[in-house]
């Protein structure tokens, strides 16, 4: 803004040498887009964004592995609906034409705080695989315990 508004109103200050000078004005917006950009800039790694849970667009990135070929889509859909019913925000990757590694890379890039993988292997153990974004290790959690896992 400079002196655009201070000059017409003769707004001045006296400097350390006793001289009168025009006030130089500034305007600094604090909008959502700037906040989000700052969060992304400070919370990332070489794979992508690591959203803090408090501001993440989704808490969970749900990935179904080979759901079409193995006929497990209905079980994954039921699990997805249960998460939503319990107010857990979910981004569901139900793409059939993408390999698991690509889905994992996309999940890291997007950066939801948690990734849940449902596959033939996990369902055989009545479990899902949960990985916190930014951590190396995954944990197997029983399907019946998942809601409590996120409510703690």
Structure write-up:
This protein has 152 residues and is of the alpha/beta class. The protein has 2 domains: 12-45, no CATH class; 49-151, 3-Layer(aba) Sandwich (Rossmann fold). It is 30% helix and 23% strand. The chain is built from 5 helices and 9 strands, in the order E-E-H-E-E-E-H-E-H-E-H-E-E-H. The strands form 3 sheets. It has a 5-stranded mixed β-sheet with strand order 6-5-7-8-9, sandwiched between helices. Strands 1-2 form a two-stranded antiparallel ribbon. It has a two-stranded antiparallel sheet with strand order 3-4. The mean pLDDT is 94.
Brief write-up:
This protein has 152 residues and is an alpha/beta fold. Helix content is 30%, strand content 23%. It has five helices and nine strands, in the order ββαβββαβαβαββα.
SS field, number of helical segments: 5
Give the N-to-C terminal Cα separation: 49 Å
Proportion in β-strands: 15-25%
CATH topology name of the largest domain, in short, is Rossmann fold
Strand order within the widest beta sheet: 6-5-7-8-9
Show the helix and strand layout.
Layout: E1 12-14, E2 20-22, H1 32-42, E3 44-45, E4 48-49, E5 60-64, H2 73-85, E6 90-93, H3 100-110, E7 114-118, H4 120-124, E8 127-132, E9 138-142, H5 146-151
Parallel strand pairs: 5-6, 5-7
Antiparallel strand pairs: 1-2, 3-4, 7-8, 8-9
